[in-house]
Amino acid sequence: MEQYLLLAKRAKGRALVDLIQKATAEPGLLAFAELLDVPNVKELETSEHAPAYHLLQLFAYGTLLEYNSRSSSLPPITEEQRLKLRQLTIISIAEEKKSIPYEELMQQLSVANIRELEDLLITDCFHQGLITGRLDQKQKRVEVLDSVGRDVRASQLQPILDALKQWMEGCESVAGTLEERRQWLTQAAEQAEKDRAHAESQVQAAKKSLASENDIRVGSREDMQIDDVEGPSLDAMVEDRIGLGSGRPKRRQKTHAA
């Protein structure tokens, strides 16, 4: 399109008509609003070449069915231009419907039979990336998943802006809800960390308390073992020394003279 825009800024009259014919037949070129906005092109609307300007408008916003209904007041089109209008028509329908009956497409595209229609859809739409979807041959319809966009008329801008505004308001509402949730989660995490630290300090204090009590108990047991074992042994030694070990005085051993 950039090449055509540069040429249109310098062209006049019949040269512009030829330029429009070439642009509308250019494979892969689907948007023409920028070309319509070129001042030299706008001047065609009030000149003897107005039909060329209206044809360009049709390629920007219209369909093949519209061309057929106005063909007497518009320049004749080539097979390349007719194919382009068919592609643009399919895109326009796919923007509004996600399930398109074969019968409707055949009427809109002036296609004689289903085989021709399916070839057009597969070769000139699916393979070109204009629409994505599948052919339901059993139900005789096209299931559309996505499609490229077309030029937008000025009258279509306000509904689009209203839809975008509504979408943005919905996004802001969701963002506000998410922010509130984030703050709640942050506060909950901070409180959980405080509770964990408090519980950990209580556990450590309880461990120290139990350790101290255990040391005291161990010390008491050791003292008791000394009293029960070592104490009586010392007393027995003392009693044995003073002759009270068996409860009666020990006899002295007699010494026999040699």
Automatic annotation (TrEMBL):
The gene is g7253. SMART domains: PINT (SM00088). Residues 248-258 have a biased composition (Basic residues). The keyword S-adenosyl-L-methionine does not apply. Residues 214-224 have a biased composition (Basic and acidic residues). Residues 1-149 form the PCI domain. The keyword Signal does not apply. InterPro entries: COPS7/eIF3m, PCI_dom. Belongs to the CSN7/EIF3M family. CSN7 subfamily. Keywords: Signalosome. Residues 193-258 are annotated as: Disordered. This is G7253 protein.
